[in-house]
Design brief:
This protein is mostly helical and 109 residues long. The chain is built from five helices and no strands.
Length: 109
C-alpha cells in the first residue's frame, strides 16, 4: 500500500470517527493538512468506497477477508468416498515433498 493510499484510509477513518460525511474534498483537505503527497484520484476512490459500503462493517470484518477453502459436494454419480479420498492424497503428497526438501539441504550428512 502506498503512502497516498494509507493517508486516504486514515483520513476516511478520521472523518467517519468524527461523524463527518466522507467526501473526496474532505479527504483531500485532511491529506493536504498532513503534508502527504497523494495522487489526485485517491480521495475520490476512497470517497466512493465509503459511500457504497458501511465503514463500521469494514472495520469489524478486517481480518475475515479472503475465501475459505470449501470442498464442494460431488455432483453426478461420483461416490462421496472418492471425493473424501482426494484431499487426503493431497496432504500426503505435501508431506512427502516437504521431507524431500529437507533432505536436499543435508549437504554434509
Amino acid at each position: 500500500m502506498s503512502t497516498g493510499e494509507l493517508a486516504c484510509t486514515y483520513a476516511a477513518l478520521i472523518l467517519h470517527d468524527e461523524g463527518i460525511s466522507v467526501t473526496a474534498e474532505k479527504i483531500a483537505t485532511l491529506v493536504k493538512a498532513a503534508n502527504v503527497p497523494v495522487e489526485s484520484y485517491w480521495p475520490g476512490l476512497f470517497a466512493k468506497l465509503c459511500e457504497k459500503s458501511d465503514i463500521d462493517d469494514l472495520i469489524m470484518n478486517v481480518g475475515s477477508g479472503g475465501g475459505a477453502s470449501v470442498i464442494a459436494a460431488p455432483v453426478g454419480g461420483a461416490p462421496s468416498g472418492a471425493a473424501a479420498a482426494a484431499p487426503e492424497t493431497a496432504v500426503e503428497e505435501t508431506k512427502e515433498e516437504s521431507e524431500d526438501d529437507m533432505n536436499m539441504f543435508d549437504l554434509f550428512g
